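Predict fold of tRNA(Ile)-lysidine synthase; 447 aa.
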Amino acid sequence: MPQHLLTNFTAHIAGQQLFDPSQRILLAVSGGVDSVVMAHLFKQAGFPAGIAHCNFQLRGEESVRDEQFVQQLAVALDLPLYTTRFDTNAYTQRHNVSIQVAARELRYQWLEEVRQQGGYSYIATAHHMQDSVETALMNFCKGTGIAGLHGILPKQERIVRPLLFADKEVLVAYAALHRISFVEDSSNITDKYTRNFFRHQIIPRMQEVFPAAVKNMDNSIQRMREAEMLYQESVARHRKRLLFSKDNTFMVPVVKLQKTVPLQTIAWELFKDFGCSVAQLQQVLQLLHSESGRYVETATHRIIRNRSWLLVTPVAQPDAPVQVLDAAPAHVVYENGQLHVRQQERGQASIPTAPQTAWLDAAKVSFPLILRKWKQGDYFYPLGMPKKKKISRFLIDQKLSLPEKEKVWVIESAKRIIWVVGMRIDDRVKITTGTENILAIELKTRD
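Predicted 3D structure, encoded as tokens:
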């Protein structure tokens, strides 16, 4: 019921231990009913908060209208306001990603910057029960496995979702009850996007047969979150029992794996991180009954039957020389072209958007810099993303072919990868408003 929303809201925050009532929370507010109601609930509850709004400049005058509405909302609620505008279309072309991915990366990168600079403990987004159910259903259809069936999590690192308990209809009813105005996003109407198709077509048809489908699925999602914890604990025990390493080789005892139940599930968890696809898993299991010397080659590794063991070794790649840059300025020639390194003051110049140029916060980078080819196990924090990502997965997301992947180089500083050369810098060394000096690295490719 809408009249109980505030009570349920504070109870959910306490029950999920999302944040302490004294902590300052940055609210991501689009102007839609969900985020506007969230802002009002924070004000009603007396939680210290600020409002952040992103204008992605994708809907013309409507985007400007939303920005102006949120400005008025912040004044009405007497909350600090932070706004920004993005050239989202340019970002999609520069990074070869979809509009949705671009908007998400730009949004969370900027929100995290504001959170840090503004002294906020967490970022709050207005995802609600239906959003979580839609996510779980889409993941189920994509075949993401058990990890995708927990829906949207209430808390992930510095992001909290205090409305996950709430039904969308209750949020709308609360807005009507308290005469809270909001704006409508026209892009939510079209079924062009997958989420909207599930929202407008799939779930309503399910509710025709099962009227309580959304609530029932949400209950199942919450149980799935706990089931996943048990699953991961079990996988960790099996991995400790079955996976051994020596130098650059991993070893799995054949007899122990043969006796493992459930075999396919545990085998998948063991070998998926070695480039094994779902289609290749059966070939790997056949190695349990083959003669010594047989092998399966995945995208990144070779899994070899060697007597009573399965040996997992990286696919051999020709060695490339490592180059060391001791100081700036510097100039180095390598197989992909030339790198020019210089240091300069921040000034008023705009940050270049070309992927061949990396501008880094010089205070966050230390010499010597190491230029080398990427290798399995490498990871970094891609610009605009709050979590680390293996470079192998990053290159898959970039849709690079195997020959293209083999030509990718990285630059290290203090054992941290700071640039996947010509592609993406590390979020930890990006330029912020506090940057005073820039380390500029420019790639000039061979003609």
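The CA atoms of residues 309 and 328 lie 49 Å apart.
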